[in-house]
């Protein structure tokens, strides 16, 4: 898809489609709800990761996040929050139903990971 944005015509079409999606009250509301839920799940993910690792019962399975933890200490939290912010802005910029659908599925998957972290840590 990235290569398809190479032409000015395709970029204009994307901008028009994004504006059209933002003009829909239903799409706009759905995007906000999913972004809010995503950020709540993301914050709980940070907490659950800290609890699971701190309890000694778990480790970070994502190699990119694990490397960030090793090299930045607690800086991984700021990096994760910044990435969440960027993704949130992208979804709000283009609240098309396909984007919202994929984003919702990804958020549910992340919520499952959070639940699993809390089970590993013995919270549940």
Q: What's the β-strand tally?
A: 0
Number of helices: 5
Low-confidence region ranges: none
Q: What composes the largest sheet?
A: none
Terminal-residue CA separation: 41 Å
The helix content is over 70%
Approximately what portion of the residues adopt beta-strand conformation? Answer: under 5%
What is the N-to-C order of secondary-structure elements (H for helix, E for strand)? Answer: HHHHH
Radius of gyration, taken over Cα atoms and rounded to an integer in Å: 17 Å
Shape: elongated
Our count of domains comes out at 1
Kindly report the average pLDDT value.
90
Q: Which structural class do the helices and strands define?
A: mainly alpha
Structural features, described:
The protein is elongated, with a radius of gyration of 17 Å. It has one domain. Helix 2 runs antiparallel to helix 4. The relative contact order is 0.17. The protein contains five helices and no strands. By secondary structure, it is mostly helical. The chain has helices at residues 8-23, 25-54, 63-72, 75-93, 97-120.
């Amino acid at each position: 898809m990235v290569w398809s944005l190479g032409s000015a015509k395709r970029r204009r079409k994307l901008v028009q489609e994004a504006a059209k999606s933002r003009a829909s009250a239903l799409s706009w509301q759905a995007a906000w709800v999913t972004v809010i839920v995503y950020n709540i799940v993301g914050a709980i993910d940070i907490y659950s990761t800290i609890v699971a690792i701190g309890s000694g019962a778990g480790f970070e399975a994502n190699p990119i996040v694990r490397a960030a933890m090793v090299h930045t200490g607690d800086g991984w939290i700021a990096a994760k929050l910044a990435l969440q912010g960027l993704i949130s802005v992208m979804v709000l910029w283009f609240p098309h139903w396909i984007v919202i659908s994929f984003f919702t599925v990804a958020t549910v998957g992340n919520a499952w990971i959070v639940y699993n972290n809390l089970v590993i840590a013995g919270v549940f």
